[in-house]
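The pair is set out directly below:
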Amino acid sequence: MQTDTPDRIAPRRAGNIRENIFLFAPNLIGYTRVILAVVSLYFMPVHPRRCSAIYAISCILDALDGWAARRLDQGTRFGAVLDMVTDRCTTTCLLVFLATAMPRWAMLFQLLISLDLASHYMHMYATLSMGGSGQSHKKVDPERSWLLHLYYSNKAVLFTLCLMNELFFIALYLLAFTDQDTPLASTQMRMITQNAPWSAGAMEIARANKIDSSIPEVLMWLSVLPMSIKQYINIQQLVIASQWLAEGDVAERASRQ
């Protein structure tokens, strides 16, 4: 969760040496998150434990890159955007899988994807167009929304809500695999995954070769309230960004009259 403080963004020079923003430690952590997310997608159809562990590590690193940015004075616009884009893409990929694994709730997952992408895009665009190029998307006027201000200004709140939001969807993912294993399913699993590990058949057998654990359900209920708050924040973020843009339109039209 990198910050993008304007006075820390301009490349500094030491003699004739120009800093390479792409090799800053927080951005290297960001690239690692992307790689881990891709690896988790590879295992997602047939290896729920492995996929969940790798995906969770990628999410936890989301806090480490922000810490490194502040510690090393390496907060950048590129890092902030990389962080946001990575978050949006990883969550979207997981929700797409959930839509296929739980077709009954596919429309809900599609709406959550749309809300997540739309609210963050509108918020970022409104910040840049109305607040200026040097304005951080994390600097929210408390008069517009005390909740959004708290969310973006309090690192503990931001990390907790984001983590619990991801935990809820990971728990749902694991629930798709929760049940008793059967010898037949295990044998079929090995045969299909060896020959066509990304096929629909492999996914169906993976569901039959399930996890005997109640932990995913416990995690789901523990995280459902923070997840709901996070979705409410997304809605509020979308509404407030829309209102801010509309205010700018009104002011611009009035100036032309």
